[in-house]
Structures are given as structure tokens and as C-alpha cells.
């Protein structure tokens, strides 16, 4: 096996839900005579999805996103009879060309990412029977910019409640702890962390930091969530009152400018700043200069010889300072994709036109499969 | 500042105990007219120790170990008036030459690592008033191979009870969790881990894995420790009975051949093997071939198409798959070094000839300082 | 102070939210010229509420429920100028008479419990401007049996989301652990508990048992909740597959007949049964005879000399085997009562006719107050 | 069965180690022709031990301690052929008479409690081949007051390291949480507890309180233990600095006068005091008057209308406010008793004259049995 094939094989082994689905979908040839056009990062985990679709009878054409395509994986997919467009070196212009190439296959079903395929299909007039959209951003684009052009059902994967549970609460919580340790080489016990935001992600982060002995303060404006945090044993404070004792400040609110220059002035010398929210805008540095200190750490010099440290440029600490989405969250999301595509391909019973949530029965089916996979040894000998 | 100087400064900031000691030792010029010869990895954290000794009046000559010297750090130390021998490219032969160069400074006090300096001093007849030894291996060498040649007190740092608490229990426990996640990109919840050994390291690993939701089985032959594990809520099993349900097997016993080929045959397909003990010998693979899968992961192919996965070649998962010793454990060990050297330099009151444990009052002093550092913001503005 | 007055004073001290509200309501004389009719257990905690209402200007008449009135508390209330009807020895007939006596005061505002006052008011035609209802049962009675007779707003306290958080998750969770230990004199570590139901109460119970080292299996039919349980690290099983290894079985589903005779036949000898759901019907014993063993424990003799043990007759273990609702949950509920009554008394802005949830701003206000109380010493010297 | 017989049967069922030993000891008739004299509380759990000894061939005579004998249990033992002296109503004088009656049976082996039997045997000159002593107090009496009079081996049960693990750390830790909840009817989350002492008991208490969401401060004078506490994530403070924020103060140091009047003056109004150490002397109240508030709670009135609350008169909260020693700790202690008596009765191989620790092999044997019992359903159908 090539290196890429090894990596795909390893991903397959550790994505028990998706690989478990494969034999069922293949047995029924669910995608027989179905052409699926895909826009999704080309890497080992998505490669498993492609091969599952292919084994279940689909004709598959895929393009990745600019700059992330793993060329070895692309080659492995091509060897398996899948049309792959694009390479790592591509820029925005090549990306649009790749999208057009996928649409050129006249796909009846789309797996979209940011609504790029939907936009191309709307321009070209290619007839489509339905599809899925990976992101909330793409769903918004369908509802706004592309409103009126989508005459087929689109299942939006990212809004599944399973993602809040698996990815936001547990995935983000555990990988932020890992990312902090990896980036800083520091231990957690007794360190005073201030976590700003007690939504799904925030409570995961706060809980896992505390499980490692961290002294966690929660900042949360919603009174009921704040009470929940206190009853779980956390200190709850106003941001202004928490800063002076904070050694590590983590933002995860989804709102811009949560931490601003005036807050930085109150933090003690040596405090560390990190963000776990989707955008880096949660921490506003103003005109502070940044000096690289070591991989993933920059020093901010404030008046009075005060030094603060910013992790991974304020980008999501678990992704920028870690190994990407944990494989379990990918197994979940790609399994939701596979079953949603199968629903569309088999006539889309119960679906309506336009963007819509993952059908409840698919959520329950994937939850049941993931539960089963979590509790058993990976697999019996093949 | 150069990149190396930035890294040294960052280490200093996050080693509050050692840097806190600096002003006290400097005020008293504890090492005035004292020549200290050092054998220790030349990297940012040890550089902080060197500068602390220097600021307190010592004349310092240091050499690293073959292959680990960071040349930029060496340059920064030289700029600070410290004699540094060796460079990254050095091999064993150059190392011996570097040792001799350090001894050529006629040091009155030694900071030794593996008893290399003690051996050279014994050969050369350089008069020495005392020193420290970092490792248990070095202490054993002093007691055996070099017995009779050591006429001065040597404080053995590694045997301090503080290391069992800070490094073995908490440091290893947390960094093994980090190393597992970093290497595999997998989450912990509900995964069945079997931890072989419930000593200081083992209980740290078992506890922290469980705090992340792992389903942890403990294997421990000592009946009293096994009962302790059970009362903390762990499953306790014989290794033979634990294997069939194990998804991740972690050895941390200090004994060779704990896991052997017959055990591998009982593990389920897809199981992961890792070691947290000092030597990789705990897992014996026999003649199984290893195929690299991704960074830090090798596949072992067993009969019947069974695949097992070995992490970081069976070497310590937290070090080989992570970022080295956490900075807190270095702060602890180097602070013990600084105070032990000061004890020797100031006449060695209460010390005896030959290897001996860290004096109780030094352990208590460092414990008190570390406690204080753990609970306060890093430092107030300088 | 009399013994009852001591108890009332102690309750007041440990109900910081309600007693904190008192000065605010009194300063504004919120209930000036308002007659409030109350049906609620007459005991120290409700006595604090009565005195708060009285201090804020209300004329108060109260009756308890049959058999629960604490006569000393009733006397203390009477001494404070409150009309109290009923005594401990009362039966159902006297209770109806007491209800009529309260209604005879022509209350403009009602604090009702099971809609007893509402029914009496409907019969007598007493004009009422609004009120509160403590229970869901009372709310259902208002919607069904009394539909059409209620021409005023009724705020239903029990449906507040704060109760799910404070009482169901944390209150029930902690007091079930206490009740189990109190009743059985057994420790938790390593004991295999099977918790049937992973709703708000069930997850509280499962989490707190595990925090004490219990080996907890969760049984839950809803796939998404079951996945949540697994990701929190619990074993998840079908009831049928969990029974044979169960040492303690706890039901908390809200459904009748969850555990039936065929399940008892599968439990091992010596297993313990308990219920934490509202009704004892969750465990059906059929015709098994019960032999008292010690306080709160009965033995069930099954064929084959198998013995099972039933705690507190299958009634809610935390209440029947413990000290009643924890004071924090009473502080919460009675504070919601006080502010809801104040809303009604001050004109009921924003309220509609008939039963309705606690207004969102009142929930937030109480959450904020409770959060503040949880985090500070009880009170400063008066 | 009588009520007492039911209780004995229930104890037997939940003391798997001791009842498991019974068949082994009986099969070998380990105590054939052996007369055992016992001084131990006469209650259901010790009754199980008596019946185990009897079934293994011993002739048994027992007396309890003044005021604790359960007469029904005594009757049940008598019905089983055991000589029981004393009744609940007995005072000190009758106790001495009962001791003499037991010694009158000319026992060759003693199970002693406070060295009462040893003293009587020393006076009477009864020949004894060996025995056990339950308490440390009794062991001290053997070493001091009775030094020179003991010509036989005495195994001191209370010093077994298993007791530190099972009883001190886990038993005391869990039952203090239970006792606090039972006595106060309060919840744990977010409440600020200050635990004075981080020995075996103290760390159990601190850990279990935190597992219930308590905000725990540890006060500990030993620097190394204090560092351990901090690394486990606890706040560590000087007592003087902890008091002003303390809502519940728990002493568990083994030293008198740990908390004195000047400390009480610093506590906030409403703070609660409790003791988990063996003697109530840890909290010194001086001349403060105590007013009963409710069962197990007294109010202390300080100047400035400050009120403090003392739980269970400062006696061990878990015992005085709870249900006595948890059955697992009794199972452990009585199993150590049974095997130690068997060692003495079978010739006392390896034992020396006078008080001595439990032999290591007996500790390991009991640890192994308890481990096994903790992990399996109580028993299979008889």
C-alpha cells in the first residue's frame, strides 16, 4: 500500500460507523446509477466516504478546497475509479474551475460545502434531485444569496443535534485541553483558567479543564446558564472581576470583540490568551505587536514591561494547535452525510424543497450506531 | 532578542520557582568564587538554571549530551559569560572530549548526569567538594562502578519524593492523555483502556484517562494496590482476562516483557499498544513486522488478518509522542538542583560522602515554593 | 425562641434568596392591602415565605395538607399575625373545611397546591385577581376539571426550567446518593448500579454515583440521550442485558411498570431495588411478599432461595429515605412563588388568563440571585 | 426469623469477605477445641463474626461495651450456642463483671477491645496462647500500663494499612458527605468548604466533597502534603486566610485545639462547624453557649449577633450524624480479626510475643478477597 492508502485504511479502521454502513449500502446498491458531485476536503477520512459511496454503486466526482487537497489521497481515489479534480497547489481560480469540472459530470446528487456546487448548478442549469450541505455558512448562502434557485431538497449536516453533543461538547472540550498542553508544554492542575462562554463548547472546555485539576472560572452573561455553571461547581464571575487573577483566558462565545484592549490591560503579567470559537475575532488586540516565541506562541508587549502570550494567533486552539477534528467527529459527520445522500438518492421521502435539518430518524440511526461502536472493540478479524 | 533568547525568556517566565530563587541566591552571591561543572542537556530550561547560577556568582562550564545540544541556546549562554562545550552534531567521541573540557575548568562543584563528570574527575584527580547527580542510573554508577572514587557528597535529585508527586503522578498522567490524543487523533470517552501497573505513574494515567470519560481497567499484581484501584472505582482484572475487551493497552510497570506475543494474540483486531514506562522493553513484539501508518503509529500484522497498532515504537508515549517533560517538572527538578548545589557550595552542612537523597529541608522548601507558584498569577510586572 | 421559631430562623438563614427578597418586597410594601390565601405544607421553610409576604404588607391566611402540618410552626405563624387553619391530626374532611376557611378570608390572590383553593373559589364565586399553583398536577386540574372556571392568571411554579436544573439534576442526584448510603449503610465504590432513565433526574443520579466511584450502567431508550450517556463515559445497555450484573437497580423514568417480575427473576441474589421517580409504580412486584429487614429495607423472597431487597417501599428514595427536599430547592421554589405573587399583586402585567409558565424575567431574576447566594458566605452580621 | 435474626442475616449477605471465609474456616474446623473470649460491641455485624468462629469449631464467650449491647442480637447469639454476657442497660460496674465472666470461661484466645480482657487475664493468671486487639488505644495500653504482663502474641487490627485505605480514605470521605447532607439538608455544589488536615481521612473528605461540586480549600501544615493537595486541584491556604470565606469548616487533624475562639471570631455569620477527627477536641468553643436548633445542630451566639452552627456537638460527623461505620469497613476489620485469630489458634507461626501488626500475608489475603467481592454480584443463589 502507498502511504496515502495506509492512511485511508487507518481512518477506515477508526471510523466504525461509516465503515459499518458500507456493507449495508453496498448490499442494496443504494446509489446504483446515481452520479454524486462532491465538494469536500480531499483527505483520508473523506476518502473513506467516497469509497463507501462508490462501493454502493455511485459514480463519484469530487473536488477539494484550495490548498488542502492531499495529492496522494487524490491518486488513491483515482485508482479506485473516482474522478478527482484539483491539487494542493491550487488557488481560488483553479478551485472554481474544479467546481465546474465536477458539475460537468452532470451529478444528480450533490454533497456541497459552502454552497459552491449549488451556485455552479444554478448557473449551469444542471438538473439535480437533491443533496447535502456540510456547513451552516453554506445553508445561509442557500437561504439568502441563492434563494429561489434551489428547487431540490438540501439536508444541512452541521445543524444536527448530534454534532452539538459529539463535537462541540466532548470533541472541542478534550482537544482544547490537548491543544493547550501541546502548544505550551504546561500542566493544568491549579492553574486559573477563565473560560468566557458556557454554551456547548464552553461547558465542554470548562469541565475537561477541571477534570485535569484546573481552577476554572466561568464567565457567562445568560443567568440560567451561569446558574448551571455554578451548580456544577464552577466559580462564576463577571469578566471584569475575573481578569486580575486569570492565568489563561479562553474565549468561546461566537461573538466578536469579547476580549478587548482594556481587558488585556487588567490581565496579570505572563497571562496566556487563547480562542476556541470559530473565528479569531473574539480577541481584539488592537495595535499590539506580536513577537514569535515558539511554535504557536506569540508574545504581546504591553506598557510597563507586561508580557502576554497569544496561542495560535487567536485561531481555534484545538485545530490550529492540534491535529484537526478528532476522528470520531468526522465519523459522525460523514455517516450523517452517507445516510442523508442515500435518503436523497432513494427518492427523498419526507423531504421538502430547500435547506432543512437532518431527518430525525437519520439522527437516531447514527446515534444508535455510534453508541454501539463506542462500546465495542473496533472490529472482529475480517 | 534572538529566537533562542526568546525561548529562554519564555522558559524563565514559566519556571516561577527557579526564577524566584534567582534573586535570593544572587543577593547572597551564594556561588561567589565557585566553579561549577555541568553535564546536562543544553536547551532553554537548563539555560535558565545556568544563568541563575551565574547571577549568583558562579563560574559555569557546561556540556550537553550527544545530539541534543541546541546551538542557539549554547550561543546565548556564551554571550552571558558561560563556557559551553559541544554542538548538536557531536557524537560519543566528541562528548567525551567535551566532558574533559569541562573538567579542565577545575570545577569545585559538579552537576552531573549519568556520572560522566564523576568518572572524568576520578581519572584526572581534580579535587571536588561536592555535587549533584540528576539520574538514578548515575547514582547506581556511583555506588557500583565508581565506588571508592567519590570522596565528596553527591545529592541525587531524581529520588526526591517530590518527583513522584509532580512528575510521575500528575506530569506523566496528563501528558500520556495528551500524547495519546496527539498521536492518534482519537477521543477518550467510553474507550476501553487497560493500564498495566498501578504505581505512581500508573495511577496518574488511570485517573486522568477516566476523568476524560475513558473506561479504564487496571492490571496490578500487588493485592493492596489492586484494592486501592478498585476503591477508586476502577475495574481490576488479570491481564489475561482483560485483553479480549481492550482497545488501548498501556504498560507502565518498569518490568521487561510484561506484554508478550501470546498476549498480542488475544487482543482484538484494531487494538492500540503504548508504553509509558521508562524503557520500551515492556512490550515484546518478537518477530512481528512493523509498517508505518502515520506519524508515531506503526501497524503490526498478525495471522488471520488481525492488525494491531503500536504508538511511538513502544517508547514513552508522553515524551516520544509529545513535547518533552512538562515545564513544571523541569522547574521542580532544576530548583532542587539549584538549592542542592547551593548546599554543597556553602560547605555541605549535614551531608555525608557519596550519593544521598535530597535533604528533607530542601524538599520542603521547594514544595512550599512550588505550592505558592501554582496558586498565583505568574508574576507581577517587573 | 420556641423550638419551632428556632427551626424557622435556621431555615431563614439558609434560604438566602428568599430572605434576601424580603427587604426589597417590604421596602416597597408590594402586598399592601392584599389578602393572600395559601394552601401549602405548614413547616419551617414555608413559614419563612409567609413571614416574607406578611412583612411586605399582605394579610395572609394559610392551610396545610392533611397530616403534614407542624403545630409548633402554625403557632409561631399565628403569633406573627397570620391566620393558620388546621393541625397535624386533620383528615380529608377537616382539610376541606380548612380550605373553605381560607377562602372565607376573601383572598384576592391565591397560592395554590393541587388547585384546591381554585376549586373552592370556583364554587363560592369569590373574586380573585390571580395566583400561583405549585404543582403540575394542579395545573392539569386547572386545564381539565376546572377549565372555564378560572378567569384570572395562574403562574405554574413547577414548570420553571430552574427546577429541572436545581432540583432534578443536582438536588435529586445528590440526595439519592445520600439516601442510598443512609438506608443501606453501604459504600458506593465499584458497586454496579444500573440507572434506568437518563432524563434530568437520571443523569444527575448517574453522574453523582460515578463521582463516588460507582460502576454505573445507564439504560435509556432514546438513542440521542443514550449517546450522551456513553460520551460522558457511562456503560449503556438494554435493561435485559444489564440485569444479571446489577447489584443496585434504580428506576427514574416517570413510566409505570419499568421493572417487572420477569426482570426480578434475572437479577442476582442480593440485588437491591430502589426508585427515584415520582411514583412507586415504576417497580412492579406482583404478588411477592415483603419482609421488613431494617428501617427502609424489605426483603423479597424469590424461588430458589433468591433474596432481593427493596428500599423505602419503592417510594422516592431521597425523600422517603432522607430528609425531604434540600433547602436550596425550597429556597428556589419559594422565591419563584414570592416574585410570581408580587407580579400578580401588582397588576399582573404581561400575564394572560389561566395557567401559564413563570415569566422569563422572573426566572432570570431568581437565577441571578441564587447564583449570587451560592457563591458568597451566608450573610454578613445583621 | 426474629427482627435481630433478620438484621444478622442482612449483615451476613453484605459482608461477603467474612461470610466467604466462613466455609473455608469451617471446612478445616480451624477453631476445634479452641475457647475464644471476646470483648466487642454486640450488634448484627459482630454477631456474624461470632457465628463464623462458632461454625469453625470455637467455643465462644462474648461481652459488649456498656450501653451498646443489642439485646435481641444477644438472644440470637445465645440461641446459636454462644455465651453472651451483658445487656443494654449495663453500666461500668456491670461491664467489669461481664469481662470477668468471659475470662471465667478460661479462653485460650482473646479478641480484645481496649485491652479489657488482657487486663483481666493479667490479674487472674488465666493462661492464654494469643489474641487480637481491635484498637490503637488498647495497643498503647498493652505497651504501657500492661507492659510485662503479656506473654502471648497480640495482633493489632487497627494498624493494618488496609484500614487507612478502606476506612479512612473512602469510608470516612463518603460518609462525611452523607453526614453533612443528612444533618443539614443542604446541597454541596459551590459551597465553600475548608478542610483542615490532608492526611488519609482529610484527602478522602476533600476529594469527595469536590466530586459533589464543593469549592474546597485545604489547610495543611506539611509542605509536601500541601503540594499534593494543590496538584490535585485544591486551593491550599493558611487557616487564618481561609476563614473569612468559609461556609463550612471541617477539622480532621487528630490534634487538639486546631480551631479556637479567635478563629470563630473570623468566620462569617452563618458558618457551619464540623469535626471528622476521632476526638471532639479539635474544635474548642471556650465558654460559648450552645442552643439546639434541630437534630444534630446547635447554634453558637457570638458578639455582634453573629451565629455559627455546630454539627453533632463536634463529634465525628459521619458516626454521630450518620449510621455508624459502613458495612464494608466492618467486613474488612472483622475479616482481619477472623484470619488473625485463626493464625493464633493454629500455633501463631511467625508471631512474636506482645502487640504486633497484622501479618503481611493476612493483609494481602484480605485485600484479595475484598477486591473480588467488590467486583462481583453479592452471591449466586444458594
Separation of the first and last Cα atoms of chain A: 18 Å
Main beta sheet of chain A: 8 strands, mixed
Largest interface: A-B, 61 and 61 residues
| Tally of strands of chain A | 15
CATH topology name of the largest domain in chain A, in short, is Rossmann fold
List keywords for this structure.
homotetramer, eight-stranded mixed β-sheet, Rossmann fold, 382 residues, 2 domains, disordered C terminus, alpha/beta, 15 helices, 17% strand, seven-stranded parallel β-sheet
Could you give a quick summary of the protein structure above?
Chain A is of the alpha/beta class and 382 residues long. The first copy, chain A, contains 15 helices and 15 strands.
